[in-house]
Structure formats: structure tokens, C-alpha cells
Amino acid sequence: MLLDVLTEPDILPEAESRAGIDLGLSAFALLSEGRKLDSPRFLRRAEKRRKRLQREVTRKGQGIEEPGRPVVPRPGRPWLE
Q1: What pLDDT does residue 67 have?
Q2: What does the alpha-carbon distance between residue 46 and residue 58 come to, in Å, rounded to a whole number?
Q3: For a FRET experiment, which of 16, 19, 59, 64 has its CA 20 to 30 Å from that of 48?
Q4: What is the per-residue pLDDT for 69?
């Protein structure tokens, strides 16, 4: 199925002022008005959580069955949830 729609493009009005955005490493963005936007920390938060969960798994053991010791299943990849 093929559908063609012909429309006239909307002409935008001229802007009265200009805006600038500087993307960087220390700050996510610096706007021309002087406002600074912080970087999102999704990856760093996920890495910290993964490290903590990995330490817990290591301390609990690998699920080795011994008499009197509970078997602790190893989590799959909980840091991705």
C-alpha cells in the first residue's frame, strides 16, 4: 500500500533573538542565558548498584550446597532492572 499526501510547508516567523547551547563534559549543557544543566547520571548510578549487588552475591557464595548452609541462587542481571 502506498499513500502520498501533498501539503504546503508551514513557514515559521523570524525569531527576535538567538539562543546558544554549549554541550560539554563537566556540565551537560550551558545555555546562552548563563543557565547550567547538570549531566544525567544514569550510567554511574547503575554501575554503583551493580557493584553493590555483585559484592552481596560474592559474600553469599555461589550457591554451593553444603550441609547446614542455605543455597543462595545467583541473580541474573538485576542491575538492568
Answers
A1: 65
A2: 18
A3: 64
A4: 65
Grid cell 542565558 in the structure block, residue:
33
Percent composition of the chain: helix, strand, coil (DSSP 3-state, to 5): 25, 10, 60
- The amino acid that residue 22 corresponds to is D
Amino acid at residue number 70? P
Write down the H helix ranges in 7-64.
42-60
Question: Could you report the per-residue pLDDT of 21-41, keeping only the tens digit for each?
Answer: 777 777 788 888 888 888 777
pTM (two decimals): 0.34
CA Rg value for the chain: 26
| CB proximity list for 57: less than 8 A, separation 6 or greater | 72, 74, 75
